Each structure stands twice: as C-alpha cells, then as structure tokens.
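Here's a chain:
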Amino acid sequence: MENVVIKEEVVIVGGGVAGLATALALKRVGVRITGPGLTLFSNAWIALESLGVAHKLTSIYKPYKRTKVTDVANGASLNFQKKVTKETLLSAKEGEEWMATGLRTVHRRALLEALLEELPIETVRFSSKLCSIEKIKTRQDNDSFGVIIHLEDGTTVHTKVLIGCDGVHSLVSKWLGLKDVVNSGRCAMRGLGVFPEGHGLNHEMQQFVDIGRRFGILPVTDEDVYWFMSYQSIPSKDAEMAKGDPKLIQMTMLESVFGSPQVVKDVIQQSDMKSLSWVPPSFRYPWDLIFGRVSDGTITVAGDAMHPMTPDLGQGGCAALEDDVVLGRHIGNSYIRNGGMMSQEDLKVEIEMYVKERRWRTAGLITASYLSGWVQQCGSGGIGSSSNGVGWLMKFLRDTMYYKIIYPRLGGFLHYDCGKLPTGST
C-alpha cells in the first residue's frame, strides 16, 4: 500500500467518550483536530455544559429523585435519608447538592452522538488503528511538527500534539511508559432491560447488596432500564464467561440472583441480548499515576488511557469529561495567547500544567472507587456466596460506616468544577 503522509496540528487517538469530548473541547477554542448506559454525576454535567451539549441530553433523560439500598440477606432497606424529614437522598438538602445536580443515566450511544454532531465530519477518521509513535527534534518555531504516528492503513501523520484517548490498554500510555493496568479481582455483568409497554418503575436508583456482590437497577427512560452486577472473581467460571455468550451471561445472572426481589429477575429476563456484557474491571495503581510519566512534550493521555478505575463510583466517564475540558482549556489558552498559532514550547508547558491539575484528582478517584466497591461487597465472596461466616465487622463497615457516614460525604469530592473553556474562533 502506498504510504500517505498528512499533517495535522492535533491528533486524538480514540473515538469514545474521552476522544470525542476532547475533540469538541478543542473545536470550541478554535483548534482543528483529527480523531477517530452511562451514569453521569454533577461533575460530568458541568463538563458537558462547558462543551455546549448538556441541553441535548437533559431534555431527554430525567434526573433521579431517590436512591435505595436493600440488603438481600435480610430484606432490610438501608435507606440513608434523614428520618427527621420526608426529603429523599437526591433532593437538594444541605450538603447533598452534588447529587441533586442532575444525576442521570443516559444511553452511551446518545452521548457519543451528541458529541459527534458538533464535530465537522472531516475531522474524524474512522477505522484508523494506531501502530507506532515517533518523537523527533523540532525547530523553535510554530511550523514544526514534533510527533509522527503511523497507522495500520499505511498513513503517516505528522502532528504537533498527540492525545491518547485509546482506552484501558492504550498504546499511547504504553509509549509514555505508564505501567500496565492490574486486575481488580472483581467481575461485572451489565445489560439493558427493554420494556416496550413501559417498566412501571419509579425513577430512582436501586441497589441490592449481599456478601461479595451487588446488583443495581437504574431506569434510563420509561422503557429502558440499565442494570449491573458486580461480584468477586471466580477463576473457575471466568474463562467461560470471557467468551461473551449473551445467553450464558443471562442464565448465569438469573441463577446468581436467587432470593432477590422479582424486579431484579424481570430486568434480566427483559434484556436486549446485544447489550449483555461481562468484563473483569481493571485499574491503574494510583501511585503509578502520581509518579509515572503522563506526558512527554506535547504527547499526553486522557480518560481511561490515563486513569482506568473500577466502576464502583460511576466516575470513569465523568472523570474523562473533566479531563477533556481541562485539557481543552490549557491548549486553548496557548492557542489564543499565540494569536491562533500552535507553539511547541508553549504547548509543552500547558500540557504539563494539565497533567499536574489532573494527576492527584484522578488518583484519588481510582482509590475511592476501588475502596467503595470493596466495602460495599464486604471484601469477599462471589456468585452464589452467602452471608454465612462473614464477620460482623465488614457488615458494620458497609451498613453503618459507608452508607450512613461516608457515602453522603462523597459529595464534596465528586462535585468537581472543571472550569470553562476559553473563548476562541470556531
């Protein structure tokens, strides 16, 4: 195949939430780029508002009014709202504004389409797999392209800025030298229950907990219900589940929720078979992120490529949207300060500032997410496990320390304002 050589000022690798949102952030500040059921907390909506697309989704998806946790072992509802009032957990009570600011579950495809609609179609290059990265010395001027990437189709791209948004097993993060992700020791099954005649559920988040496992139900619309199950890994079953057979996933789920309320079984039975998935969540050790090389000159990463984390706080996509606005702000400041030119030296400084701003924030999210899952699942167990023999201490940590004391106070940590994008010419 004849080699094609092109030049672009900024190249984004990855076309998921992080990649498209980064592309849109840069478009909003005037920079031309090339690039290829999610629960969103208030920090994500702040970012989407900065990107100018929040209104597309808030007009369709309703915020939750309430969340409930039920202990399947004894059927007791762990409702941690204040008993002195009739206000629910997700109302705008003092100290809980973080959850009142539009906590919603949206279709992932709808979010991707909302972002993609704002991008000129010529800026997106589909089916272009990254093969290798080169960094070359450049002159001290605005016309130098210091990064060369080679694509699988034979195309060579010269760029001034390379942003890796290519997921958990990112080639860009490996090139930077970030250590590989580690297995969390847990597994997660997910799906979308579809009820053409309406599911009839209240628009609230429900979670059912047992030793070593959690099951969540999150209505998306009046017809669709997103659900998930998280449990401790069982090596004897993992290999079979990894095949991704949707019928096996559904059957295993129905067997594992024995003793749970009928609503749990209903959403599994009504699942769109194409939506069923099984994954062993992985994460990056927070100290690898704190002390690792997250950028090299004008090469950096965002989203899961930077901070893969377990899904226990629902912050993977939210943190990625934060990254995109912060990175867009720093690159945009450089672009505007230099009169619409891309200065390599100035961009290097701004990207270093981006890394400094995100390093500790995301390391904290990785830690909090892992610990949140560990304590909610009482630290051990798996599919089919029971509460027999489990110490009272773990249940005390979960029911009293976490749900009643720690969880309501996560607000100050999750309610994060990533700032606004500078005004540029689009």
